[in-house]
UniProtKB/TrEMBL annotation:
It comes from the Eukaryota. It comes from Cylindrotheca closterium. The keyword Transmembrane helix applies. The lineage of its organism: Eukaryota, Sar, Stramenopiles, Ochrophyta, Bacillariophyta. The chain crosses the membrane at residues 69-94, 130-149, 161-185. Keywords: Membrane, Transmembrane, Transmembrane helix. This is Uncharacterized protein.
Amino acid sequence: MVSKEAFLPVATEESADLEVPMYSPEVPPSEFGMSSAHNNNATHATGITGEHEQHLYCNYCCDTRRAVLVVNVISIVINLVVLLVVNVGFNFIINNPDEVEKDMTEEEKANLEQALHSGYLEMVEAMTDAFLVLSMAMHGCGIFGALKFKKWAVATAGSAYAISFVLHLMGGSFINVILAGVLGYPHYFFIKEINEGIMSDYNYHNVAHCCGGK
């Protein structure tokens, strides 16, 4: 008769020494910096990570990373326009003093002539150009910092807005003071969220917002 008992393999010396290969494929990172395996198991954020709540620009609009990108692009464009206008204006004054002096008083004409002969206008133009170029470089750092999640670069761009805030405050230009504050404040919250782990290359796709939505 055939036995109905289950067949149990008997261990041998060869089976004891046999090593079963364990293969764990390395999955390349996705466009968000996470592997697809991690993405499948990821817990999607709802704007709150642990005890830290995500901040949206003006409490409604885009996330702070996109806000930093947008405001720095806007600032670079504005500085380029100002740079063009300043150079065209100074060159016109330097090359066409007679046209400029038509509606001036004698005292104003004398002051302009003195500025032209002393090189004062050229110096002011050069200083203005240097300030605008430096400002654009700092805003460029802000764009780089937002793209690569680099706090030092974001802080550099934030410093440009802080300097602008102080200068306009000292000059009494309160509209520009408000503008500098509105454009500058998302840098603080972006750095804060990087420190809290809300903003990172691996987690950004979970917290990305645009105009109040994903």
